Amino acid sequence: MRKITKLLYRILFSEQEDNIKKQKNFPKNSILLAEDNPIIVRSIKSLLAQRGYHVTAVEDGSKTLNYLKSYTYDWVLLDLVLPEIEGIDVVKDYRCWEKQTNRPYLPVFGLTAYPFKEMKHVCKEAGMAYLFEKPFKLDDLKLIEDFLKNRGN
């Protein structure tokens, strides 16, 4: 199973990696998707692309943090359970870096298959705007769009 997952990732991300290295700023509606399940990545990318979003997907917390610090996105959809660095720790680290470097607030939205009540509070304290339950749906995207509209983004 691990070999199949790695193969799917190579197929999904190899072209993306080359394109990302060529550009520093992405077009409007650029989203960073941090998710380690390639099937979920494909599903969310499809949903977002239909709505006009440019999606960059990464599969682990370390890459997520690197991409957040290296490129500009309009918002982030972040799985809480990622290899290398957990989603909560990614957000905490990023928020600290964001303050140190005087970067504008970047909306981060959590994504989990295990939506415990306490988890919403933990995510909020870490610096996430919302926590969504998998599977990510059009209604979730509409909540994000409303949140961004109300913030003036």
What report would you give on this structure?
With 153 residues, the protein is an alpha/beta fold. Helix content is 54%, strand content 16%. It has six helices and five strands; from the N terminus they run αβαβαβαβαβα. Strand 1, helix 2 and strand 2 form a beta-alpha-beta unit. The protein is globular.
Structural class: alpha/beta
Compute the number of helices: 6
Please state how the strands of the largest beta sheet are arranged side by side: 2-1-3-4-5
Distance between the termini: 41 Å
User: What ranges have pLDDT less than 50 throughout 5 or more consecutive residues?
Assistant: none
Strand content: 15-25%
In N-to-C order, the SSE pattern is HEHEHEHEHEH
Overall geometric form: globular
Rounded average pLDDT: 88
Q: Could you give the count of β-strands?
A: 5
User: Could you give a short account of the major beta sheet?
Assistant: 5 strands, parallel
Helix content: 40-55%
Rg from C-alpha positions? 15 Å
